[in-house]
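Researcher: I'd like a candidate sequence for this fold, 400 residues long. If you have to choose between options at a position, lean toward the conservative one.
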């Protein structure tokens, strides 16, 4: 390319570049003057607050406990001959659990019977002697001292008979204790001794197992001092109405979230607070006919029977967590959004929550579209869509 042609090309390229830069600057200036694209008004779904009466059912962490648990302890010493139950299974009252070798005890019974027979024979002899001596003493044929000795021998022989009878009863009781039976109907624990072991009734080794009644079963839980104070405050303010005579129903929620079919009643409330936990214990009796509940299980106890009149209940989606607590966006009459700090209470159902303070009847709380809402900015309320009507049944085809 020659010199003049090259010079004209460079000048033309410079002119085009300048025009592009000028256009870009102009567009930037226009964009600044117009303020950029406007933010669209967010659409939200609201719920209008309408107070209503709802159940008030506080829940507590609870644990199941046997209503009657008995330690099975050997009363007599001897070798263990038999374990007559299956460990961990349910046994009936009076069922044989353990058998201690009864032969030494049976021998003691026989010995006691022999001793009793001997003492009875001595008693007969003493009675005969007394009957012979008494008339002779009256006739002054024998001295008075002989009568006193005969009476003493008779009384001593009769006392010996009583002692022999008591020893026989004791021996028979010990023989009966060799067969250890269940004192109640319930589940059993593992056997602490094995067949062939020597059981010494005077030592710790006399413990054999336990039997625990599970129908009914106890459900125990603790109520803290703060919970009790809040409960009384709510009742005094009329926020909560308790059932007559504090007659609560106690429901049990299992760890998997299912509710146990049987409900119970409170049978005991400890009048004293624990110094360690600042709480007092409450116990409820729950029917357990199928023995689904076993002692030691952790469950949730729910007190039913109280109600909350004029309670404000909103969906859980409407409640947001802020830096200073919970808040709810409310749509004012002019269509702008407002932030309301709220004090939430108990959960109601699976998707609603009770609001103790911060909202009132007639407020419109934002449920859907909360993330798009800006406080003080307008919002557009979207009407909830009605479920689609079921399609009309198609006419049957004409029969030929």
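Model: Candidate sequence:
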């Amino acid at each position: 390319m020659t010199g003049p042609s090259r010079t004209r090309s460079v000048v033309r390229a410079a002119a085009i570049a300048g025009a592009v830069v000028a256009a870009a600057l102009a567009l930037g200036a226009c964009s600044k003057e117009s303020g950029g694209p406007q933010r669209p008004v967010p659409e939200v779904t609201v719920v209008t607050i309408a107070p209503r009466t709802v159940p008030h059912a506080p829940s507590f962490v609870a644990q199941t406990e046997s209503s009657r648990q008995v330690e099975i302890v050997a009363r007599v010493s001897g070798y263990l001959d038999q374990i007559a139950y299956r460990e961990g299974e349910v046994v009936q009252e009076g069922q044989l659990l353990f058998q201690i070798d009864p032969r030494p005890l049976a021998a003691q019974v026989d010995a006691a019977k022999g001793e009793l027979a001997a003492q009875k024979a001595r008693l007969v002899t003493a009675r005969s002697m007394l009957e012979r001596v008494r008339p002779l003493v009256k006739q002054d044929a024998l001295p008075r001292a002989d009568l006193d000795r005969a009476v003493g021998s008779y009384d001593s022989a009769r006392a010996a008979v009583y002692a022999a009878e008591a020893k026989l009863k004791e021996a028979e009781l010990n023989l009966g204790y060799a067969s250890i039976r269940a004192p109640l109907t319930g589940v059993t624990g593992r056997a602490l001794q094995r067949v062939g072991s020597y059981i010494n009734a005077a030592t710790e080794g006399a413990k054999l197992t336990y039997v625990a009644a599970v129908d009914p079963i106890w459900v125990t839980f603790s109520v803290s001092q703060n919970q009790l104070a809040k409960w009384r405050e709510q009742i005094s303010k009329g926020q909560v109405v308790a059932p007559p005579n504090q007659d609560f129903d106690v429901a049990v929620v299992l760890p998997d979230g299912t509710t146990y079919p049987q409900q119970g009643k409170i049978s005991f409330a400890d009048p004293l607070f624990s110094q360690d936990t600042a709480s007092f214990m409450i116990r409820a009796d729950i029917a357990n006919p199928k023995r689904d509940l076993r002692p030691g299980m952790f469950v949730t106890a729910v007190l039913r029977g109280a109600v909350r009149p004029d309670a404000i209940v909103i969906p859980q989606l409407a409640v947001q967590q802020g830096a200073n607590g919970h808040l709810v966006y409310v749509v004012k009459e002019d269509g702008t959004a407002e932030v309301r700090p709220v004090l939430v209470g108990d959960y109601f159902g699976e998707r609603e929550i009770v609001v103790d303070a911060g909202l009132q009847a007639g407020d419109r709380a934002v449920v859907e579209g909360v993330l798009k809402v800006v406080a003080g900015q307008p919002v557009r309320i979207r009407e909830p869509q009605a479920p689609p009507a079921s399609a009309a049944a198609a006419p049957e085809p004409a029969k030929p």
